[in-house]
Write a structure and sequence with these properties.
The complex is a heterotrimer, with one copy of chain A and two copies of chain B. By secondary structure, chain A is mainly α. Chain A is built from eleven helices and three strands. By secondary structure, chain B is mainly alpha-helical.
Chain lengths: 265, 191, 191
C-alpha cells in the first residue's frame, strides 16, 4: 500500500504517527501496526533535510513501533510483558495529547478567523478633547528616542536555539553506544539485552539502548542473536571493529541519521 | 449645548459616550473613577449596555477583553466593511503554528525549549511567526533567563474572550473514546 | 465567517457599523456604494438613524459635517469626557509606541510597511495610535501611493527641539561597531 506522506517541516514525530494512524478510519481493518510501522519508517527516510535533534525523536518513535511490531510474533510475550504495554501506552498518551492540542488549535483558528469580523472603534479623541489629552511626550527626552531607535535598528538577535531540553536524549543515544561498547568490549562472552539495560529506570532509556545496539550491530562491532523466539537478545563484541572507530561512528550517527529499519527486527 | 441644569445625564449615557471616544479597551475601574461610582456598579452598567446592544440588533456590540471594554462592529456586517479595513488579512496559520498556539494558550507561559519538548520537534520558527503576527508575546524577562511566551492580550481579545480562563476545557478537545480505542488497536500487534 | 443565511442584516444596521468603524466623516455616497443602493435612500437612513439616537438619549449623536457623516459624543457628556481624557493614568508612551516614534523620527518619512519591516513586528496599530494622539502625521500623499508618516511639528516642539536635525547622533547609543554598521546600512537612503 503506497502512501505518500507530505511532511511539514515543523511536524514532529508524534504528528507523523498521528497522521498515519488516524487517516482513513474506514479502513480500520486494513491498517495494521506493521503497515503503520513501514510507512513511518518510509516517511522518515525522506527527512534527510531535518536536523539531527529532530531526527532522534523520529527514530525513537520508530524503534518503539518496531519493538511493538516484533512482539506480534510473540503473542505470549506481548500480553505478559508489562513494560511493552507501558511503552505502547506512553505512545498512546502522546498521541492523545497531540490530537488534543491539534483540535484545540483548530478551534483557535476558527475563533481567530471570526475575530477578524469584529472591528473595534478606533476613531479616538474628537478634536475638542484632543487638546486636553495628557502630553504623552512629557517625560520623553530626545535621548529616550535615540535609545529606542538604536534598539530598533540594531541587528535582530537570531533566535537563540536552546537545545538544553533535547541534549539529554541526544547524549544518551551517543552515550549509550559508548556505554554498550565499553561493557561489551570488556566481556568475552555474550551479554543479554536485559543486562545491558540494567539500571535503567525509564522506557526511553531502554529504547535509546535498543537504538544504540542496532547501530553497533550495523557497524559490525557487535553480533546479536536470539536463542529462541521468546528469548532475550544476546550481544557479543566481535572485536572486528576498533573501539575508537565505534565512537567515531557514534558521532557520525549523530550527524547523519540512518533509519533503524535497515536492521530488520 | 444645554445649560447647566443640575441634572446630569444618565450614567449609562455617559458610559456610552466614553466608549465611543475610546480607541483601546477601557477597564471598568477607569470609567468608575470618572463617574465617581463603585466599579461593581459600572460593571453592571456595562453588562446591561452590552445586553441591550445585542437585543436591539445594532450595527455595533460591546465586548470585554483582557484590557477592558470596547465597542466593535457587529460581525454579521463584516462583509460590507471589508473595503474600509486597512491592511490585509494574513495568510492562514499552518496546523503546526496552531498547535503551538494551543500549547501556549493552555500551558503558557512557556519557553521555546519547553514548547519544542512538548511537540518533539524544533518549534522556534513557528514561535517566531506567531510573535511577528502579535499572537504571542514575551513575558517580561525573569531572573531565570529563559524567555517565556504567552498569548498576547490582543489575541485573547480577538478570540472574543475576557481572559484565558474562559478557554474551553482542554478535555473538550480530547479524541473520543472510540478514536482512542482505534489508535490503541492500531498500535497493538494483531493476533 | 457568518453562516449563509440568505438574509442580510438590515441596511440601517450596516450603516451603523460603517459609522462606528469610520475614523473620519463618511460621505453618504460612499456608504451608498457599499450598500449598492441609491444615495438618496442612504441619506434617508442616516437621517432616521440620527433622529433615533437623539430620541433615545444616547451617549452619541450622528451629525453631518462638510466631509460627511460621523458619530460624535453627546455634548452633555463633555464634562465627564474631559475627566476621562485628563485622568488617563498612563500618559507614558508604551515601549512599542516609543520605538515606532523613534524610528519615524530618525528615518522618516516612512510608510507603515517600512516601519513594520524595520521593527520586524506588525506596527499598524501603534502607528494609528500615534497618529490619533497627534504625535505623527501623514505627509501629503505622493504619486507613489503609500502614505508616509513623519513627526508632527508639535512632537518636535515638545521634545524641546527646533528641528529633527538636533536629535542626538545614533552612534552614541549603539551597543557596538557591528551594530553601527548594520544600522548605517539601514539608514542609508534606499536606492
Amino acid at each position: 500500500m503506497a502512501y505518500e506522506v507530505k511532511l511539514d517541516v515543523f511536524e514532529g514525530p508524534i504528528d507523523l504517527l498521528l497522521h498515519l494512524i488516524t487517516r482513513q478510519r474506514v479502513d480500520i481493518y486494513e491498517i495494521s501496526l506493521s503497515t503503520i510501522t513501514e510507512e513511518y519508517i518510509a516517511a522518515i527516510e525522506r527527512l534527510d533535510e531535518l536536523d539531527l535533534e529532530t531526527a532522534t525523536g523520529f527514530l525513537i518513535v520508530a524503534a518503539t513501533l518496531l519493538e511493538l511490531k516484533s512482539s506480534r510474533l510473540l503473542p505470549g510475550r506481548y500480553t505478559e510483558d508489562p513494560s511493552l504495554l507501558e511503552e505502547r501506552d506512553l505512545l498512546l498518551a502522546r498521541l492523545v495529547e497531540c490530537a488534543t492540542f491539534r483540535a484545540a488549535g483548530e478551534w483557535l483558528a476558527t475563533m481567530l478567523e471570526r475575530g477578524l469580523d469584529w472591528h473595534p472603534r478606533t476613531a479616538g479623541l474628537e478634536p475638542e478633547f484632543a487638546g486636553l489629552a495628557p502630553d504623552l511626550l512629557a517625560s520623553t527626552t530626545p535621548e529616550h528616542l535615540a535609545r529606542a531607535a538604536a534598539a530598533a535598528f540594531a541587528p535582530k538577535p537570531t533566535p537563540e536555539i536552546d537545545l538544553h531540553h533535547i541534549t539529554p536524549i541526544r547524549e544518551t543515544v551517543r552515550d549509550a553506544i559508548y556505554e554498550l561498547a565499553q561493557v561489551l568490549d570488556g566481556r568475552s562472552g555474550a551479554v543479554s539485552f536485559s543486562e545491558l539495560c540494567g539500571g535503567t529506570t525509564r522506557r526511553i532509556e531502554v529504547v535509546v539502548r535498543f537504538l544504540a545496539l542496532l547501530e553497533l550491530f550495523k557497524s559490525g562491532a557487535v553480533d546479536v542473536a536470539q536463542a529462541d523466539r521468546f528469548g532475550d537478545i544476546r550481544a557479543t563484541w566481535t572485536g572486528e571493529v576498533d573501539f575508537d572507530e565505534v565512537l567515531e561512528e557514534a558521532d557520525e550517527y549523530m550527524l547523519a541519521p540512518t533509519q533503524p529499519g535497515g536492521a530488520r527486527s | 449645548m444645554n445649560e447647566e441644569q443640575g441634572s446630569s445625564p444618565p450614567e449609562s449615557k455617559i458610559v456610552e459616550s466614553i466608549l465611543l471616544m475610546a480607541d483601546e479597551p477601557i477597564p471598568a475601574a477607569q470609567i468608575a473613577e470618572v463617574l465617581e461610582r463603585p466599579t461593581a456598579l459600572v460593571e453592571e452598567l456595562l453588562n446591561q449596555l452590552a445586553e441591550s446592544y445585542r437585543m436591539s440588533d445594532r450595527g455595533f456590540l460591546l465586548r470585554e477583553s483582557p484590557g477592558g471594554w470596547r465597542l466593535y462592529t457587529s460581525p454579521d456586517c463584516a462583509p460590507w466593511l471589508e473595503r474600509f479595513v486597512i491592511g490585509n488579512r494574513h495568510p492562514r496559520l499552518t496546523p503546526a503554528a496552531l498547535e503551538v498556539l494551543a500549547v501556549i494558550a493552555y500551558k503558557g507561559p512557556l519557553s521555546r525549549a519547553t514548547i519544542t519538548e512538548i511537540r518533539g520537534v524544533d518549534s522556534d520558527g513557528v514561535v517566531k511567526t506567531l510573535q511577528n503576527r502579535g499572537l504571542i508575546e514575551e513575558l517580561a524577562p525573569t531572573g531565570s533567563g529563559a524567555v517565556l511566551f504567552r498569548l498576547s492580550d490582543g489575541s485573547v481579545e480577538r478570540l472574543g474572550l475576557r481572559s484565558l480562563d474562559e478557554l474551553p476545557p482542554l478535555v473538550d478537545f480530547m479524541p473520543d473514546a472510540e478514536a482512542v480505542e482505534d489508535m490503541e488497536s492500531k498500535l497493538s500487534p494483531s493476533v
